[in-house]
Structures are given as C-alpha cells and as structure tokens.
Design goal:
Elements lengths: L9 E12 L9 E10 L5 E2 L15
Antiparallel strand pairs: 1-2, 2-3
Length: 62
C-alpha cells in the first residue's frame, strides 16, 4: 500500500503539466494541458500516479 496518503507532505489536486506534443525545434511551442495530480513537498516530485512520488527521496525512508 502507498504510504504517501499517510504523509502530511503530500499535496493532492495539484495541477500537473502534461505535454501532448513536444516542440520539434527550439522555436516551436509544445502543446500541453493540465490534469489533477499529486505533488510531494519533501522531494519536489510531481506525478499523475501517487506511487511514483516514492521513486526519489521519501520522508518514510524508502
């Protein structure tokens, strides 16, 4: 079970930038939209899947 939901460092309903089409050159713009996701204030990671937040430093020592 994911322990992030027990952590006070978790922010849910965070708007996460999702890139639909990356820019093909430095002068192009990427197309993106925002979706509700999760953010860990401890390690600064953002993800649409809460289990991926534990892949870096974790307050629980994982």
């Amino acid at each position: 079970m994911c322990r992030c939901f027990q952590c006070e460092m978790l922010i849910d309903d965070e708007p996460i930038k999702v890139v639909d089409f990356p820019a093909s050159s430095p002068f192009d713009r990427e197309l993106f939209h925002f979706e509700e996701g999760y953010r860990c204030q401890f390690n600064g990671r953002e993800s649409l899947v809460v289990e991926e937040l534990q892949n870096g430093k974790c307050r629980f020592g994982r």
